Please model this.
Amino acid sequence: MLQRPHYIALGLVVLLTLIMLNLPSQTTARLKLGIGSVFLPLFGLAGSSQEAIEEAGGTLLPRRELLQQLESLRQENQHLRIQAMQADDTSRENARLRQLLGWQRQVPWKLKLARVVLREPSNWWRTLQIDLGSRDGLRVNQPVLTADGLVGRVSSVSLTRSQVLLLGDPECKVSAQVENETHDSGIIGSSGPLNSEFVEMGYLSGSANLKPGHLVKTSGNGGIYPPNIPIGTIVDSHPVEYGLATVARVKLAANLNALKEVWVMFP
Amino acid sequence: MNWLHTVFILVGAFLAVFWEAAFGGLRYLIGAQVDLLPALMVYTSLCLGMTTITLLAALGGLWLDSLSANPLGVSVLPLFIVGLAIHTKRDLILRDQTFAQAVLGGAASVAVPVLTLLLLLTTRHTPLFGWGTLWQLVVMCAAGAVATPICFELFGWLDRTLVHPRAAESSFRSDREIRRGKD
Model:
């Protein structure tokens, strides 16, 4: 049986919830960042403990394995340097031809490395937090990627850290294009609650000719993501809406489960 | 009311929320991140008063939402409702029994996310929701069932170790004390 103090406490909590849920979005974002900043001392602690664990793991690695890794990295480095030389030539040639044809020059991507500090504590969103904030020049909606492909976009920024919406979150939609003969385009939507490796690509035409293995890249439409950032590959597709549209399952190129560092793209 | 006990609970909630956000390894192993706040709420509602329940729901919920993409404040009410429901029936619950603690912890760990999801859906948000959510609820239920007896052990030990025990009152009234001596 509820007593008077129970009713008072219940009233207070309901009032608090109603006020919080009805605040303007900017005020809520500021409040969130303010409340979240109480965890700042623990960020450093978690980071240093992780480094200590990695360091301890490093000391246990046998010397022979380290030498093998060093040799393979040396070879990879040489290979990449030759590729970079070749790419330099191609890039110069591309720029010259673009100038001759009067096309707009392609701007190289400006990237900044960020460390992943926190992950989403609840099961119904896909986000993470990085250690770059407004003092590092970050703004909302900047694309975030890894060497493998697109990861998501910056959704809110505080002074020292930012929240990144990952691909597969219901709020993170990306305009994408399939690398096939017809260059079918669609929208990358949400993933299932359990599997973050796959996302759904919707709004594809009913006559889209999709095959497993086709590459999916950003289309450049929408104004947030530049074109040609790899997103993933088509796994399978099926017609929906009585064959008027197609939905495809895309396996993401970037492994969102193992993100430790990401690159934030600057305009 | 013992304030030190309340402080222990709130510090526990603070660390639990940070752990949930900093260490996501469980989600990639078993497909769900566990929530320790319902287990703490079960302990609080059985052992402490309304003030601590309200503080835990408000602060724990706000801390969790501040590190999550949840709208701020959405986790407060579900935590409080679960705490209030247990608190009003606590005289009927065998709180010293591990089995009762585990059952309550499991039930609370399912009830809190379900209520939060309902609140999100009624406030026109679109969380990730599907058949996989059932598996996540099963994992959270199991984790809550394990975590609640641990909470009782841990906070019971802290209470015994750090909080000054209450002085035992004499059953004799002082004016009825039999004075011995020559007078």
Summary: Residues 10 and 16 of chain A are 10 Å apart (CA to CA). The first strand of chain A starts at residue 110 and ends at 119. The mean pLDDT of chain A is 88. The radius of gyration of chain A is 23 Å.
